[in-house]
Design brief:
single chain, 260 residues, mainly alpha, 10 helices, 0% strand
Amino acid sequence: MNSNNYISDYKLDAIRKEYGEKIIAFSKVQQQIKGWYKKFAFVFTPESMPKSEFIYPHSSINNYRDSWFHYRKIWTERSRYESICHIATLEEHLQRSEKDAVVNFFQIISQDLDFWYCIETQDLPETFQEHIEIKSYVNAYYEKSKQEERENGQWLISLWDTYGLRDQEASFALIYAVQIYFSNFAHVKKQLQELLHLIKNTTLKMRFDASDIRRLEYPGEYVQCCQDSYNAICSFFNEGKNPGIYFLLGITKVVISNIK
């Protein structure tokens, strides 16, 4: 295309208005996604441990910043060809920013929950089998727990707290406790399985859609297509249900670092 083919003032004003509105609309979408991250800041993490918080991805922040760079170029560029290039790149940055933030959110949750769902098949160190005293303690602790605490996993939290600052012993105890928990409450593990499948199917669809030449029509499309998965996560953890698994979600990396 001839770069000397200039765009009219009328058309340029319309472009500035349209993409200015898109950038502003995305800032609201970004706040919504950040709300997802903030909600899962893992308030159940014991005071003795550093809180495990979601980190909003830098790639998302950088892409949004870069969209502003190309938007400013639209105000100074008069070449039709250059304007089209900046518009296309601006849209690409907004799309990547939204996708990176959403995919990262679900990926963090699914990876940590996967560790516990597959705990019986994890490649644990040989020393794990040698902790006879820990296993005896966990069994006794489970037996003296109330039925409600057993079912909702609250006993997992209080079990961890009994170890104080003995993080490694607490980690081995928690692994064994989760095995007991899932063996006695298979329906909870089944619910977790269904949640993981939903999350993974959603993120896979987003990744496959990224190869589609079609661009998003408006900011928030990725959020909209993932809303059911997000609602399912909230339903699984909210209303006092499954506080034990919510606790596991926040302490996974601590446990992994202690058993290596």
